[in-house]
Amino acid sequence: MRLLVALAFALVATAHLLLPVEPLREAASIDPALFRLIMVELRLPRTLMVLGYGAALGCSGAALQAMFANPLASPDISGASSGAALGAVVGGYWLGITQPLALAICGATGALGTLALLMLLAGRRSDTTTLLLAGLAISLAAGAATSLALALAPSPFAFYDAFDWLMGSFVDRSLAQAAAALIPAGLATILLLRRAAALDLVALGEDVAASLGIRPQRLSLEVIALSSVAVGACVSVAGAIGFVGLVAPFFGRRISRGHPGSAMVPAAIIGSILLALADLTVRAVPLDRPIPVGVITALFGTPLFLWLVVNMRRRLTP
Amino acid sequence: MTSLVAEHVALEARLKPTDLVVQAGQLVAVIGPNGSGKTSLLRALARVDRAEGRVIIEGEVLDEAPPARRRHLLSLLPASRDMSWPIAARDIIGLGLDRPDPERVEELIGLLELEQLANRPVDRLSTGERARVLAARALAARPKLLLLDEPLSNLDPYWVLRFLDLFGDASASGQAVLVTLHDLSHLQRFDRVILIAAGAIQMDETPADLVASERFGEIFRIRENAEGNWTIRPADPQSSP
């Protein structure tokens, strides 16, 4: 199973870098320098961004689910992605920030704000209904605030411009932009992964974890802060992409035999695979206008989400 | 040999500052009316929820012990048997150990007769079955102190007796064992009984002395009738506020 996932990752990553192969071949036949330019300036940043964003979503989704002890907690359901989008929009269109790293900080701040609000409203060990409703309310509010910020933005083109990336787009991202998103997201992801053993013990209940020397309060704050950085930085560059952070941990736990903390590594890899597949789909669709990646992930993610909800309800009501 | 020394352990609003010394190999029952502070005492001893005071287990200050060491010092079995994740029973037991030890896990599976359940996800087991899996997890690292919160609830009569035997074995091997209980019919199997009410230790006696005392009946609002059964104590007009 592990080997299969690793193989799939290698395959999808290579495919994402090389497909469609025709322009590459053409460029190579004209001028090797042009080929290198396309690879380094266009293909590589896009592939890195897709794989990194997918991994950040998968890993932080798994960490949030482990901490909230709920398979429905995830960057999108908890409102973190919408908060990050709000942060990036306010930073980009109101504060006039163009520097990618500064925008990434805006995104992370927005995500942190919404997650902190969720903790305040729902609490850590809240039941599924409270968590979903509070997350939904926060998501909707952040979405409305984003629309308002765009509508009233100093630039009249803000709305049109934002539509291009807010629902997820990897088109024409530079290496600098990819670095601004992926360096903080990568660091945050590594720090999250170091908490895998602690999150596995939280599965036994917070009291047991505390008796073993883990501070659940501090751990949850760390998980929230690190997830915010990981997701927020990526959202500021590539938009808010739903469902990957929800779905990848679900499959990750199949590989970790149910352990929620150890599920972070497989969830990160599966997140990369899913997002790369979604972006490949966007590129393969024969339309002359780009489809947001978030539309593709929602298309495939919604059925699984509904299945999860129904399945949980069946388990709760015997 | 002294196993546990607790100095002024307290939990805000639930447990008043409490001192407690338990000898190694002692089997201690903790009883008290609902909401009296039994669970809080165990939680304070396990250092949950920013508990105050100091807990020393065989000379080691618990708060200063690194996480890897803590498993060998104490283990807490909470009263709640809820499990959120579909983890196999075998893996849950493994979480009680700081490094993989399949032999010890198999030994515990045998001890708690979990052979048929070992590979099933715990969230699909019955509460009583899950209680056995979680107890196995708590016993896994053979800690010096076992803190067991209502381990006998939801168990069938066979498993109540088996668990009592397991606690006896643990104390015979030198572990200090604290067990909270509601069913008073097995008190005689314990070396010592601590009675808690209003967030403080009220009595600390041998089972026979405790049950015979007037105070015991007052706190629980019950009394023993001529046939040796417990009955509700008529309300005492002087003591009601």
Q: What does this entry look like structurally?
A:
The complex is a heterodimer of chains A (318) and B (241). Chain A is mostly helical and 318 residues long. Chain A has helices at 2-18, 21-30, 32-68, 80-94, 100-122, 128-151, 158-166, 175-193, 196-202, 206-211, 216-238, 244-255, 264-284, 293-316. Chain A has a single domain, classed as ABC transporter involved in vitamin B12 uptake, BtuC. Helix content of chain A is 78%, strand content 0%. In chain A, helix 1 (2-18) runs parallel beside helix 13. Chain A is globular and about 65 Å long. The two termini of chain A are 32 Å apart. The mean pLDDT of chain A is 84. With 241 residues, chain B is an alpha/beta fold. Chain B is built from 8 helices and 12 strands. In chain B, the strands form 3 sheets. In chain B, strands 6-7-8-3-9-10 form a 6-stranded mixed beta sheet, sandwiched between helices. In chain B, strands 2-1-4-5 form a 4-stranded antiparallel beta sheet. In chain B, strand 7, helix 6 (157-172) and strand 8 form a beta-alpha-beta unit. In chain B, helix 4 packs across helix 5 (127-139). The longest helix of chain B is centred in the C-terminal third of the chain and has 16 residues, at 157-172. The chains are: A mainly alpha (318), B alpha/beta (241).
In short:
Chain A has helices at residues 2-18, 21-30, 32-68, 80-94, 100-122, 128-151, 158-166, 175-193, 196-202, 206-211, 216-238, 244-255, 264-284, 293-316. By secondary structure, chain A is mainly alpha-helical.
